[in-house]
Amino acid sequence: MAFGLFKKKEGNSGSSRGAGYVTLKVKEVINETNDAISIHFEHPDSGEIQYKSGQFFTVIANINGKEERRAYSLCTSPFVDPNPAVTVKRVEGGLMSNFLNDNVKSGDSLELMEPIGNFTTEFSSNNHRHLVLFGGGSGITPLMSIAKSALNQEPNSKVSLIYANRNINSIIFKSTLDEMLGEFHGRFEVKHVLENKPESMDCPEGYLTEQIIKETLAVLPQLSSDSTEYFMCGPGPMMDVVTQSLDNLGIDKSRVYKESFTASLDTKTSESTSDSEEIISREVTIIYDDEEHKITVEPDETILEKGLDEDIDLPFSCQSGLCTACRGKCISGKVKMDEDEGLSEAEIEEGYVLPCVSHPLTDDVVIEIG
Ligand SMILES: Cc1cc2nc3c(=O)[nH]c(=O)nc-3n(C[C@H](O)[C@H](O)[C@H](O)COP(=O)(O)OP(=O)(O)OC[C@H]3O[C@@H](n4cnc5c(N)ncnc54)[C@H](O)[C@@H]3O)c2cc1C
Ligand code: FES
After folding, report:
1. 275 inside domain
2. Closest CA to 227 of 158, 133, 135
3. I need a surface site. Which of 43, 86, 324, 369 has the fewest CB within 10 A?
4. How far is residue 220's CA from residue 242's CA, in Å, rounded to a whole number?
5. pTM
6. Are 215 and 119 in contact (CB under 8 A)?
7. For residue 212, what are the domain limits?
8. 264 within some domain
9. Which of 115, 145, 174 is the last residue of a domain?
10. Measured from the CB, is residue 325 less than 6 Å from ligand 2?
């Protein structure tokens, strides 16, 4: 079965859309837990899929007659695993996660956007560092990739994973993690935190709290503080606790890397506005693929939504301001972003914006994408 049914441009990537898109054959589907599968892909005939640990694919599928896109982090390591894979955990009532869990089987083809994402790090055999990973539920996926790459590529580095789950049956990759503990004894450790733990397991019970984090960090192998880096990915409340705890411990923000799978409930904006800069119907110029498009964006829509309505084949994935797939540079005018979690402070200062959550504040907005 082929799930990508929207044909626009012919390219040489196996995808009907051209550069940046690829159609991959599913090699194998593995049941990780009762509600999560891993989808392993074949590399395309045109060459191996290139990706960095921590990056994500965007899956494109036609569900109920409508094209849907969602981001899924690669759980594999380009240094270790022969085939790229993603792990998809069911979300209650969720369109794509249930569609993939219910339908995908080996031999199917899935249309994807090629891997992108900034939640990554450079690996080098000269590195002598400690990577401390905080994962919750499906948030383990990019951390798994980072852990495998670090252990494989950096013989002098250590990796510690603090992994929060509901119960023992919801731990994704439990057996792989157990194998890695044996293989990398002394360089890898895992601290499970379970809301409901079995008697047999010696780990904290309940949610991940600041106290658990402090106690865990206190007994981790100590390298010098400037060689420790912290990566987190999990539900919003867990990420908030980890962020606050690291902050309270005085850990420099430049050593802390985050990936969010869902938008926070608090809407954050990156622009202060003056009275003349209100969100009203305004013209916006989008420069994409060497073409200039003029669109009129209404107050109740985002720049991306209007661009797609006008049949401009813009790149996008999460549509929540998290993944940066739609990222562009605002080279004139001002926009207001409803959410800017996906962008670093430096990117915001350089003028990067996320059209999927952006509204024009002035009449001269020009956004260059790609
Ligand atoms: C960069 C990035 C990487 C991601 N990597 C992975 C991954 O490796 N594995 C994975 O399983 N998911 C991952 N996600 C989440 C994924 O993209 C989808 O958001 C998720 O599968 C839900 O999609 P859906 O269509 O099933 O739900 P939707 O139909 O979009 O949403 C249904 C309801 O569930 C809520 N919801 C959406 N996502 C979540 C969630 N993650 N947890 C709880 N509630 C949610 C929504 O607010 C909504 O109310 C990633 C997201 C991003 C931005
Ligand atoms: S589509 Fe993900 S940030 Fe815009």
Report:
1. no
2. 158
3. 43
4. 16
5. 0.92
6. no
7. 130-259
8. no
9. 115
10. yes
- Ligand 1: atom nearest CA of 96 is 25
| Domains: count for the chain | 3
Domain CATH for 175: 3.40.50.80
Question: In this structure, which residue's CA is closest to atom 38 in ligand 1?
Answer: 262
- Rounded CA gap, 224 and 362, in Å? 49
Per-position pLDDT tens, the chain of length 370: 555 423 333 344 566 677 789 999 999 999 999 999 999 999 998 889 999 999 999 999 999 999 999 999 999 999 999 999 999 999 999 999 999 999 999 999 999 999 999 999 999 999 999 999 999 999 999 999 999 999 999 999 999 999 999 999 999 999 999 999 999 999 999 999 999 999 999 999 999 999 999 999 888 766 555 789 999 999 999 999 999 999 999 999 999 999 999 987 654 555 555 656 788 999 999 999 899 999 999 999 999 999 999 999 999 999 999 999 999 999 999 999 998 888 888 899 999 999 999 999 999 999 999 8
Residue 72 Cα, ligand 2 centroid: separation in angstroms? 13
Can you name the residues that pair with 294 across neighbouring β-strands?
285
Distance (Å) from CA 322 to ligand 2 centroid: 6
Taking alpha carbons only, the member of 17, 20, 41 closest to residue 29 is: 41
Q: Is the CB of 113 under 6 A from ligand 2?
A: no
Mutational pocket test of ligand 2: of 56, 305, 314, 354, the residue with most ligand atoms within 8 Å of the beta carbon: 354
Residue 323 belongs to a domain with what CATH number? Answer: 3.10.20.30
Ligand 1 centre to CA of 303 (Å) is: 22
Angle at 71 between CA 69 and CA 73, to 5 degrees: 155
